[in-house]
Every structure is written in C-alpha cells, then in structure tokens.
Amino acid sequence: MNTPTKSERILNAAEELFARHGYDGVTIRQIATKAKVDVALASYHFGKKEDLFKAVFRRRAEILSASRREVLLASQAQSNGEKQTLEQIIEAFLLPLKLAQESNDPGWRNYMALLSYVMTSPVWNEILMPTAFDIHVKEFIDALEQVLPGAKIEDIHWCYHYVSGALALTLAQTGRIDRLSDGACQSSDFDAAYNRMIPFVAAGFREVCRGD
Amino acid sequence: MNTPTKSERILNAAEELFARHGYDGVTIRQIATKAKVDVALASYHFGKKEDLFKAVFRRRAEILSASRREVLLASQAQSNGEKQTLEQIIEAFLLPLKLAQESNDPGWRNYMALLSYVMTSPVWNEILMPTAFDIHVKEFIDALEQVLPGAKIEDIHWCYHYVSGALALTLAQTGRIDRLSDGACQSSDFDAAYNRMIPFVAAGFREVCRGD
DNA sequence: TTGAATATTCAACATTTGTTGAATATAGTG
DNA sequence: CACTATATTCAACAAATGTTGAATATTCAA
Questions:
Q1: For B69-97, what is each residue's pLDDT tens digit?
Q2: Across the interface, do B166 and A170 touch by the CB < 8 Å criterion?
Q3: What domains appear along chain B, each with residue ranges and CATH number?
Q4: Please, is A163 exposed, middle or buried when counting C-beta atoms within 10 Å of its C-beta (0-12, 13-18, 19+)?
Q5: A-chain residues within 8 Å CB-CB of B161?
Q6: B123–A21: do the CB atoms touch at under 8 Å?
C-alpha cells in the first residue's frame, strides 16, 4: 500500500469536501488544509477551482462507467441466446455502485455522495453527466427496450428517471431514513437499499411499460 | 394583484437563486440585485444569510405541508369505511406538488427545485426536513402501513425512500431526461412524471412489501 | 402637526476568496 | 557531477464576501 502523492491527497480531500458541501461550499484553502498541502499546490496541479472539481468527478466516473459496461456485457453473455431478465439488467446497473460502496476505500463512499450532488444539481448535471455517463446509460436503456417489447420509449425514459432518482437519494446518504424510521433503517446500509431497489424498480417498470 | 413588498421581493429572488445554485452558490448581493433592493435590507429583514435561507424554505413548506395533510384526510374521508387504496395514498402525497407545479406562480416552480436541493443535501436535510416535514410524513407512512398489512416496517421505509428519491430528482428539473431522450420527454412536464410515478411506485410497494 | 416606530440607504469594516509570480527545493537525465 | 524539468513554498494581490452602525426617509398613530 503506497502512500498517496500530494496530488492524490488533494483529489481525495476535495472529493470528501465537495461531496458534503457542494462546489461553492468548499474553499481551496479547506482542501489544502485537509490534504496537508500548500494552498498554491492545488492551482499548480489542477488549474482553476472548476477544473479541480471536474478532475475529481471524472477520476472515478471513468472507472465506474467501465465497470458498469463490463457487468452489463457479462450479464448479456452469460444468458447466451436467452433473453435477459429485467432484473438482470437493473442489477447490472446497480452492482458496480454496490461494490464501490462496500469496498474499504472510503474515497468511493465519498464519491457516491458527490455523484448524487452532480446528478441533482441543475448546473453541474448539464456540464458533467453527458460526457461522463450518457453513452453507457444509453446502452442500458437499449437493453431495457429489448426486454420490454412494445413499451413506449417515453415510458422507459420516465421509469429510468425514477430509478435514477431513487439511486441518487440513496447515494446522498442524508441520514433521513435513519431519523424517520427511528433507527430501523440506516442510510449507510447499501445492501438493504440495493436488495429492495431491484424488485421495487422491476415491478414499477413492468407496470408502467406493459402495453395496455 | 398587489405588488410585492421589498421584503417579499427579497424572498422571491433568494428562492430563485438558492434553488438553482444552492446556499453557498448565492451571495446576498446577487439576491439584492435581483430583488432591486439595497444590500443591507436583506440583513435588516431576515438577519444572517442562514436565517434568510431558512425563511425562504419555511415559507412554502408550511403551505405545502398543510395542503398535503388536507388532501390525505379528504382522501380518507371520501372512502368512508372502505379501506383506501395504495394508489390513493400515493396520489395524495404527490397531488399538492403537482398542483403547485402547475400553478402559474413561478415561485412555486422555483421552490420545487429548492426542496429537491434540501432533500438531497446531507447538511440541509438534517437541519430543515425534520421540523418542516417529518410529522406529516409519518402520517403518510402510517397510512401506508394500514394499506399494506403484514409488511415489515423496514420495507415500507425503504420504499418510501425510493419514492422520495424519484420525487426529488423530478423536482430538481435538471433537464437530463430531455437530453437522454432526445426531447421525447421533458423535465418540465410534471404531468407526465406524476401520472407514471403513481403506478410505478404502487407496483414497487406491492412487490417489496408483500409478505412472501 | 407632533413624535415615535419602522423602513431604507449609504459607507465602511475586517475577512476571506481564488489566483499568480518569484523564489526555492527536489527529482530525473546526460 | 552539472543541467533541466518538475514540484513545492512563500508572500502578496485585487476582488468579493457578510455584516454593521449611523444617517436619512417613510409610515403611522396620537
């Protein structure tokens, strides 16, 4: 386990702070302090603050996107010839996130919250999501089309939107479900969140997308 | 139609800006400029910036909360004696938001995005949601318990969490569904979002909460 | 019309902001 | 070794930040 470079420490500190407080809620000095690094070093390595934010977001976005595609393709290959099930597709979409969350790397957990922030921000969504995720999300939607024959394309998109929202709130880890349920559920329990999300979402898709 | 006071203009301007850029992404001077008001006036009327934000959030939260409770009670009264359906409860939960969105008051549309921001922010969720929404959300969850006999309380809470997430992303109006669907769907089309969300969510609840 | 209460303006403040340029240290290469 | 490129520090900058206190205007009741 090699110790991270100063450059990596900056990314990690920025990741953690941006995830919790958003882009404008964090100063470069806070990042530098947490990374135990001189203030000027962030600008030297990453340029403007906006570029640092983009760098933080893209670092793991690429890993995540590749992992998702891999899982989706593996799932398609496994059921050779046979049609995939709706559940398999949704599972392939969620599994990489679950694995990331369960990994011991706390950076991934921070990144999940950052992803949620970008997904729900009107400003950053438009800037970052298209280039980072669109291509592979479209593959996912194509797969859904194939497993839901006759479904209207708008229905599929709206259902995907609901999945996306349920996922985003899960990633945000606001602790709200802990408070509302008096501790019966925990925001940090991704296993619980994912295991139920798959049947929930699959049932929703089938109901909305069946050709009445 | 009486012209808004300066104090109201500040709230309206703050609402619009906070909704789009978040708490830290907005300066008091931006708010004052948009409200066509002196900078010092915001502090005079609302105190600290944080207090202004809370005032903006709470103004419509109370209206919304009251409206939701009213619709839920009316729905319970209508089906007198008979058990409510799951769909009726979900509809009661969503209807006030739909009405707010469809009203001509652009302030309500801004507020929807602000609500989404608070719901997904780890920081603000904890500060504002419990006092503003918890009581009536618990009523909603009680109603769900009654209509889903035998369901585990954790399952209900997780399903509510998914509804909450789907709703939050809808309210955010990021424009992402417009881009992903090449214009087949629109973020601003709350009618489309709402009409599909009810069957989607109801089917999800039934699947997850049935006692296997 | 008084006087008091409230509303609004103006100017200023101490901090904090992101960023830069020059100076210095470190690492890598011939 | 010397030389160069990269990395890091230090100090400083102009601009923007939230907030305040005193001064002025407006409202409103007596």
A1: 889 888 888 777 677 899 999 999 999 99
A2: no
A3: 59-209 (1.10.357.10)
A4: buried
A5: 166, 169-170, 176-177, 185, 193
A6: yes
